[in-house]
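Private note to self, pasted from the team thread so I don't lose it. Backbone tokens:
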């Protein structure tokens, strides 16, 4: 429509948190209409469409999308014929979601997604025409209501070849500020000057035979795993609170061959259980190397800053997004095999301080 200079949906909050209890969830905002000349409309309608989507193409150059509806709601914002003058007009709206506890959280993966889209439709009186504008709504799971303690740590301790005792404590959770986006793969992933998240590490190394620690090499990854079979059977609700917290352990995990983390492409997504991630994103490029004093028994503390954009953990039944920090501890004695710790971390969001 030539009369419309711009028409935008402006939300009161860039993302909303799904309540765990019987509470309702209300999306509030305004339709901001800017006209170059007066416009006569018969109605303004707002539609919400939530859907899950899976790309089952086995080729990187093609798309074979399967879509399933999660929610459809409609709200009439204006239901009488009215003429709006040139300039700016604000049309407030409030739409209450039905049974929000059954909805999946928003997620954007390389091969699958859960999206919620608001569409505003303005119907012109004469000649008849419909103008549409859209806005994505982001729904999150509020993990803090499920008793998550962001100060929890996972502990690894043990003895290396009778020469050195170690105890390493790593943060279970990385809390990132909710910026109102999903970290789409097409987004600019230029590292931010200020770290988006930090992983805190505390370690104690006790030398039994003057076997000091030389340095710690740190890598971090974001993994995406897909399951088309579960997508086809049901879209299902996600587990409460997002990804389950990693369990603490008192023994070091066995070292794994690094190549298991770098399977570049799985040709078919229909396999139910595949040990390798379908998509791997390095979060530290290049890896960090942290020098460590070899003084025996003195605690060592450091932070792993992650400047790249991270997606929150997702645990819906057809798409999992998880994160891991891999620390390789090298010792002063060359004959001592480096100790590799593969530590799962959970990335969770907190509401932006600006909201």
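Design output:
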């Amino acid at each position: 429509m030539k009369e419309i200079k711009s028409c935008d949906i402006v939300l009161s909050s860039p993302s909303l948190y799904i309540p765990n209890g019987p509470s309702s969830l209300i999306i509030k905002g305004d339709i901001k209409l800017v006209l170059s000349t007066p416009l006569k409309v018969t109605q303004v309608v707002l539609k919400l469409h939530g859907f899950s989507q899976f790309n089952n193409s086995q080729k990187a150059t093609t798309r074979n999308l399967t879509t399933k509806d999660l929610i459809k709601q409609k709200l009439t914002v204006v239901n009488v014929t009215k003429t709006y003058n040139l300039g700016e007009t604000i049309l407030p709206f409030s739409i209450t979601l039905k049974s929000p506890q059954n909805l999946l959280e928003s997620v954007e993966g390389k091969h699958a997604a859960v999206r919620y889209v608001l569409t505003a439709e303005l119907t012109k009186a004469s000649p008849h025409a419909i103008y549409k504008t859209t806005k994505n709504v982001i729904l999150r799971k509020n993990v803090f209501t499920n008793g998550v303690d962001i100060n929890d740590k996972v502990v690894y301790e043990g003895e290396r070849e009778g020469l050195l005792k170690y105890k390493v404590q790593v943060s279970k959770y990385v809390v990132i500020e909710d910026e109102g986006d999903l970290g789409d793969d097409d987004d600019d992933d230029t590292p931010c000057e200020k770290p988006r998240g930090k992983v805190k590490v505390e370690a104690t190394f006790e030398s039994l035979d003057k076997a000091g620690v030389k340095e710690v090499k740190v890598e971090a990854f974001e993994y995406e795993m897909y399951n088309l079979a579960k997508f086809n059977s049901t879209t299902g609700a996600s587990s409460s609170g997002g990804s389950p917290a990693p369990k603490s352990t008192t023994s070091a995990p066995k070292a794994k061959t690094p190549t298991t983390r770098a399977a570049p492409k799985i040709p078919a997504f229909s396999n139910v259980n595949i040990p390798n991630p379908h998509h791997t994103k390095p979060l530290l490029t290049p890896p960090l190397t942290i020098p460590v004093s070899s003084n025996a028994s003195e605690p060592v503390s450091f932070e792993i800053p992650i400047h790249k954009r991270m997606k929150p953990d997702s645990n819906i039944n057809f798409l999992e997004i998880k994160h891991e920090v891999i620390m390789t501890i090298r010792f002063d004695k060359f004959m001592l095999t480096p100790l590799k710790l593969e530590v799962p971390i959970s990335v969770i969001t907190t509401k932006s301080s600006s909201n």
